[in-house]
Design a protein that fits this description.
mainly alpha; Growth Hormone, Chain: A
Length: 409
Amino acid sequence: MRTYTYKDTLHACYQGYITQAIVNNLAPLLFVIFQEQYHLTYEMVGRLILINFTTQIIADIAAARYSDRIGHRTAVIIAHLFCGIGLILLGVLPLFLPTSYISLAFAVVIYAIGGGIIEVLISPIVESLPGDAKASAMSLLHSFYCWGQVGVVLITTLLLKLIGARYWHILPIIWSTIPLTNLYKFTKVPLHDPVPETERTPGKQLIRNSSFWLALLLMLCAGASELTMVQWSSLFAEQGLGVPKVLGDLLGPCLFAVLMGIGRTLYGWYGEKLQIDQVLLYSGILCIICYGITVLSPYPLLSLFGCALCGLSVSLMWPGTLSLTAARIPKGGTLMFGLLAIFGDLGAAFGPWTAGVVSDFVSQSMILSTPELGLKAGLGVVAIFPILMVFGMLSIRKSKHQIQGSNSR
């Protein structure tokens, strides 16, 4: 009989983040198909993103509250089960239910429950594994979300080209095999309690910590900055820039994910030599520039370049904020990671939805408006989040320098 080690645990966590990439990025690749087959508006497809991440927020809260009671193994197995079933329902329900939008929304809710639980548990599981260089390990873990996203975009785009948009229902069923096989792995691999219960920072103490509130704001900005661009890039390329779907998906969300994965992988390898607060500051500045290029450029390919480069700019925002907070509050435990995930999902929910609302408003209310102008206006409004990220990091660096100055005296 095979003996499972912590290396197997780490590999299962990697696959868990690939599962997260599937549930977050598969449906947006099908938005144009949903619009054509089910006559959805920008707000309605944006609402699917809102439903996804709102459900994940609720699951985050439940996981943060109850996962320590039922055990991390049980919770993470349940998470993968919901992801697998939800993906199957995404492909099956629209074939049988009379209201296709409701069936899509219901499937999204099911797999989002699993995605939310995965998001809360995988990071503290990896944080608890033996070894140093926690920030690098966290970044490498999150890089598998990016490589999963690359795989989802490439394989989904290729299969849609081969089988045609008419048979899109097959794709979610195929992707469901990833969480269902990982479910079995988590029944076998060894797990370690991230922080002993007697040593965990109490919730009331966390809430009174001003540094923690700033970390929550950074997570909100990270979620909105990353997910808005990646969730809308496929539709934006096709309808806003007039680029063919295959080319738009490859130069938009696919290249976005590649650059995000490269950023996280490089930090995973060499991150010990860098200061994460400085990296996050520069990431926010680059993200502002990328949103500006995407929205303001008159050239479609340059707009796509801005969209793709945004993947590099946001690559360390989410894992970097987690690592920065874990270093500042080392015994926060699952509750801390859960609250961080909640605010990250808040940004991931309301950022893309806000972009959809603004896009619809501009497209429908302005006489000379076009789909391109509406979509660019929606993305432009969301640029407020990387701007807030920069101000947040400047505040952290200022307080850090003040502490260093007082210690030197």
